[in-house]
Recover the amino acids of this structure.
C-alpha cells in the first residue's frame, strides 16, 4: 500500500510537470517567439483555458502527499521554507500576468505583464528543477526528521548545503531546457505561420540542450548519489524507464525535423514521464534522503499514515482522479486544434 | 521560539483574512450567476445572459486572486505548522486532498469552459458549465469546513504509538456533527456578500441612471437573495452553531458572550467592553435572561461562565474574540433589516425610486466582508489556546526549524505582494463596474 501511494504521488507530480510544464514553457518563450501583440495573445489564448487546471495537479499532488505521508509533507515544506514561499510569489505574479493583461488595451500595460509572466515562468522552472535536485542530493535531516535550508551556503555539495549548489543549479538548467522545448513544441502545435516557425526553431535548439544537460546531470548524479543505481542493479526492468526517456528524446528529435508538431509534443511528454519515473525508481523507497546520515532518510515506511487512511483514500482517490482525467480529456478536446485569435475584448 | 510562534500565527491570520475576501464572493456569486443563467433559459431572455456575462468578468478576476492567495494556505500547514501537520496529517490530509481532487479539478476545468466556451457550448452547455463551477466552489467549501470542523471538534480519529492521530472512520470525519451548521452558515454568509455586492452595483446604476435596466435586474436578484440568505444565516444556522458551542466548547461561548460568572437566567450582552483585569463588562447594555433562552430554550437555564473553567483553557484573546463575535452578530441583524426593507419596497414597486434606500444599498457592500471576516475570527480565536481542540495546543504545532527571522521575511513579502494584488484588483473591478454590462459589438 505504501508503494502504491509512492507511485500515486509520483504520478501526480509527473502529470503536473507534463501539463503545467507546457504552459510554463510557453511562458519562457513568450517574449522570444511572439513579438507582436497578436502573437502574444495567441500564445496566451493557447494556454488560457487550461493553465489553471494544469496547476491543480500540483495542489492535488501536495494534498495526496499530505494525507499519505504526513511526516514528509511537514518536514519538506518546513525545510524548503524559503524556496516554497518564493515559488508561491512567482505563481501569483505569473497568474496575474496572464489574467490582468487583457483588461486594459494599452501597449505599456501589456508589455509590463508580458515581462512579469515570462520572468516568473523562467524562475519557476529553474526553482522546480533545483527542488528536484535537492531531493536527489538529499537534505540535512536531523534525528527528529526535520531540517532547514538557507537559499545557498557555499555552492558546493556538502551536508549543510543550501537550496542552490552546483548540482541543484545543473538540475535547474535541465528543467529549463526541457520545458522550453516542451513549451515550444506545444506552441508549434497550436499555432501557424511566423509564430509557429519561431517556436519550432527555439524548441529544436532547446531539445539539443536538453540532451546535453541531461547527460551532464546524469554524470553528476552518479557522483553525488551513487546509491541511485542500487535499485537498477536489483531489478533490471527499472531500465525500461530511462529507455522510455531516451526513446522520447529520439522521437522528439525525429518529429521536430519532420515538422510533425503534435507528435513532437507527445514525444516530449514521454521524455518527461520517462525521466521522472527513472528518478523515482532510483529513489524508492526514499521520499526524502538525508545528506547527514542515511538512517535519518524519510522513507515510505517510516512516514506512512495509517493502514486505514491509506485504504480508504484508495477508493476516493481512484474515483476522483478518474473523474478529473475525464474533465481534462473533455477540456482539451473542446479546445482542440489551432488557436484562432479572438476579437479584442474576448479571451486573453 | 515564542517569536517564531507569533510570526507564524500572524502570517497565517494575515494571509487567510486576505484570501477569504475573494472566495466568499466567488461562492455566493457562482450561485447568483447560475440563477441568472437559469432565468435566461426559462424566460428565453438574452438580457439575463448579458447580465451574467458582466458578472462572469468580475467573477474571473475575483477567482484568479482567490486561487493564487489560496495556494499559500495549503502550503502553510507544512511550512509554518510542520508539527501540526505531522500530528494531524493522517486525518486532515484526507479532506484537504479530497478538496484538490474533487473540487479544484472540477472548478478549474469548467471555469475554462465557462469563460471561453460560450459559443462552442450552446445555451444548455453553457448553463451546465456555470452550474459545475458553482458545484466545484461549494464542494471546495465543504472540504475546507470539514477540515476546520475537525480542528474545532475532533472526531473519527485514533492515536498511533508515536502520538500522531490517524483517521478511523471516513464517514465519521465527513459527517462530523460540527460540519452541518458550520458549512451552511458559511455558505450563506458568502451568498450575503455576493447579494450585497450585486445590489450595490445595481443601486449605483439606478442612482447614476447608467445601464438602468441592468441595475434593476441586479437589484431584484440581489435583494431577494440577500434577504433569504441573511435570515437563514441567523436562524437556523447561526443558532445551530451556538448550540454546538454550548455543548462542545462552553468556555468559548462564555468568552464570546462576555459571561464571566456562571448564572441561571444569564443576560445577553449587546454592548460593553470586556475588562480583563476586573473580569467584568464596562457600561453593559443587556437583555435579561435572553442568553439562557437562546442557548437552552429555557429562560432560567444555567449558563456556564468563564469562572467555571481553568484559566489555562480560556481563549487567549478574550476581548478580540468578544468584539469579533459581537460585530458579526450586530452586522448580521442589520443585514436582515436592510434587505427586508428593500424587499418590501421592491414588492410595492417603490425600490427603484427610493433613493435613500439605494444609497444605503450602494454603500453597505463592505459590511458583509467585515461580518464574514469577524465570523471566522470568532471561530479561530474561540478555539484558542487549542490548535486541535483538546488535543494539541497552538504553541505545540509550529515548525521546529523555521526561525522567527525567516517567518518575518515571508510575512513582509506577503504584505507587499497582497498590497499590490489588492490595489490591482480594486482598480480592475472598479473599471468593469464603471464600464458596465453594455454589450460590446
Amino acid at each position: 500500500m505504501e508503494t502504491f501511494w509512492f507511485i500515486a504521488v509520483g504520478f501526480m507530480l509527473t502529470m503536473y510537470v507534463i501539463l503545467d510544464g507546457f504552459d510554463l514553457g510557453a511562458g519562457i518563450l513568450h517574449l522570444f517567439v511572439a513579438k507582436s501583440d497578436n502573437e502574444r495573445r495567441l500564445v496566451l489564448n493557447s494556454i488560457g483555458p487550461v493553465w489553471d487546471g494544469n496547476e491543480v495537479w500540483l495542489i492535488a499532488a501536495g494534498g495526496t502527499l499530505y494525507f499519505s505521508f504526513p511526516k514528509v509533507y511537514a518536514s519538506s515544506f518546513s525545510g524548503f521554507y524559503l524556496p516554497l514561499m518564493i515559488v508561491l510569489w512567482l505563481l501569483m505574479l505569473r497568474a496575474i500576468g496572464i489574467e490582468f493583461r487583457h483588461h486594459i488595451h494599452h501597449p505599456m500595460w501589456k508589455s509590463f505583464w508580458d515581462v512579469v509572466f515570462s520572468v516568473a515562468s523562467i524562475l519557476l522552472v529553474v526553482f522546480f528543477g533545483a527542488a528536484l535536485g535537492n531531493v536527489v542530493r538529499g537534505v540535512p535531516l536531523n534525528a527528529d526528521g526535520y531540517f532547514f535550508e538557507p537559499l545557498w551556503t557555499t555552492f558546493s555539495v556538502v551536508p549543510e548545503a543550501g537550496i542552490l549548489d552546483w548540482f541543484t543549479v545543473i538540475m535547474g538548467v535541465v528543467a529549463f531546457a526541457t520545458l522550453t522545448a516542451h513549451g515550444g513544441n506545444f506552441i508549434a502545435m497550436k499555432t501557424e505561420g511566423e509564430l509557429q516557425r519561431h517556436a519550432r526553431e527555439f524548441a529544436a535548439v532547446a531539445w539539443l540542450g536538453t540532451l546535453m544537460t541531461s547527460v551532464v546531470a546524469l554524470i553528476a548524479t552518479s557522483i553525488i548519489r551513487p546509491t541511485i543505481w542500487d535499485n537498477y542493479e536489483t531489478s533490471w526492468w527499472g531500465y525500461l524507464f530511462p529507455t522510455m526517456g531516451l526513446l522520447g528524446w529520439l522521437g522528439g528529435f525525429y518529429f521536430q525535423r519532420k515538422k510533425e508538431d503534435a507528435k513532437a509534443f507527445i514525444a516530449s511528454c514521454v521524455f518527461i514521464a520517462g525521466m521522472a519515473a527513472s528518478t523515482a525508481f532510483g529513489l524508492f523507497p526514499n521520499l526524502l534522503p538525508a545528506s547527514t546520515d542515511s538512517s535519518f532518510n524519510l522513507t515510505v515506511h517510516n512516514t506512512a499514515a495509517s493502514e486505514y487512511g491509506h485504504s480508504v483514500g484508495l477508493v476516493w482517490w481512484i474515483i476522483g482522479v478518474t473523474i478529473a482525467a475525464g474533465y481534462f480529456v473533455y477540456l482539451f478536446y473542446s479546445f482542440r486544434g489551432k488557436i484562432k485569435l479572438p476579437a479584442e475584448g474576448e479571451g486573453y | 521560539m515564542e517569536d517564531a510562534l507569533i510570526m507564524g500565527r500572524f502570517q497565517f491570520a494575515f494571509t487567510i483574512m486576505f484570501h477569504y475576501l475573494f472566495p466568499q464572493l466567488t461562492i455566493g456569486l457562482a450561485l447568483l450567476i447560475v440563477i441568472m443563467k437559469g432565468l435566461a433559459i426559462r424566460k428565453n431572455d438574452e438580457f439575463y445572459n448579458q447580465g451574467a456575462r458582466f458578472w462572469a468578468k468580475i467573477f474571473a478576476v475575483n477567482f484568479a486572486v482567490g486561487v493564487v492567495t489560496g495556494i499559500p494556505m495549503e502550503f502553510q500547514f507544512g511550512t509554518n505548522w510542520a508539527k501540526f501537520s505531522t500530528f494531524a496529517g493522517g486525518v486532515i490530509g484526507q479532506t484537504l486532498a479530497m478538496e484538490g481532487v474533487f473540487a479544484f479539478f472540477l472548478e478549474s476545468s469548467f471555469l475554462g469552459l465557462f469563460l471561453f466556451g460560450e459559443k462552442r457550448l450552446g445555451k444548455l452547455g453553457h448553463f451546465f458549465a456555470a452550474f459545475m463551477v458553482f458545484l466545484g466552489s461549494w464542494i471546495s467549501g465543504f472540504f475546507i469546513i470539514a477540515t476546520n470542523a475537525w480542528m474545532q471538534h475532533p472526531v473519527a480519529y485514533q492515536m498511533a504509538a508515536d502520538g500522531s492521530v490517524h483517521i478511523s472512520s471516513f464517514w465519521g470525519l465527513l459527517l462530523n456533527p460540527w460540519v452541518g451548521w458550520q458549512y451552511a452558515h458559511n455558505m450563506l454568509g458568502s451568498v450575503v456578500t455576493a447579494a450585497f455586492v450585486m445590489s450595490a452595483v445595481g443601486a449605483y446604476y439606478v442612482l447614476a441612471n447608467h445601464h438602468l435596466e441592468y441595475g434593476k435586474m441586479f437589484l431584484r436578484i440581489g435583494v431577494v437573495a440577500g434577504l433569504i440568505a441573511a435570515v437563514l444565516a441567523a436562524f437556523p444556522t447561526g443558532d445551530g452553531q451556538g448550540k454546538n458551542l454550548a455543548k462542545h466548547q462552553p468556555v468559548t461561548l462564555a468568552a464570546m458572550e462576555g459571561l464571566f460568572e456562571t448564572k441561571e437566567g444569564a443576560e445577553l450582552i449587546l454592548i460593553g467592553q470586556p475588562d480583563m483585569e476586573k473580569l467584568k463588562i464596562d457600561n453593559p447594555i443587556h437583555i435579561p435572561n435572553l442568553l439562557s433562552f437562546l442557548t437552552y430554550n429555557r429562560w432560567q437555564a444555567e449558563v456556564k461562565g468563564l469562572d467555571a473553567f481553568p484559566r489555562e483553557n480560556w481563549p487567549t484573546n478574550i476581548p478580540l474574540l468578544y468584539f469579533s463575535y459581537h460585530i458579526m452578530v450586530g452586522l448580521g441583524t442589520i443585514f436582515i433589516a436592510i434587505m427586508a426593507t428593500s424587499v418590501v419596497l421592491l414588492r410595492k414597486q417603490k425600490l427603484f425610486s427610493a433613493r435613500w434606500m439605494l444609497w444605503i444599498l450602494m454603500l453597505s457592500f463592505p459590511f458583509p466582508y467585515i461580518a464574514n471576516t469577524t465570523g471566522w475570527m470568532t471561530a479561530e480565536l474561540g478555539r484558542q489556546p487549542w490548535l486541535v481542540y483538546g488535543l494539541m495546543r497552538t504553541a505545540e504545532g509550529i515548525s521546529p526549524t523555521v526561525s522567527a527571522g525567516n517567518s518575518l521575511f515571508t510575512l513582509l513579502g506577503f504584505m507587499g505582494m497582497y498590497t499590490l494584488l489588492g490595489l490591482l484588483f480594486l482598480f480592475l473591478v472598479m473599471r468593469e463596474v464603471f464600464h458596465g454590462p453594455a454589450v460590446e459589438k
User: Anything to note?
Assistant: DSSP finds twelve helices and two strands in chain A.
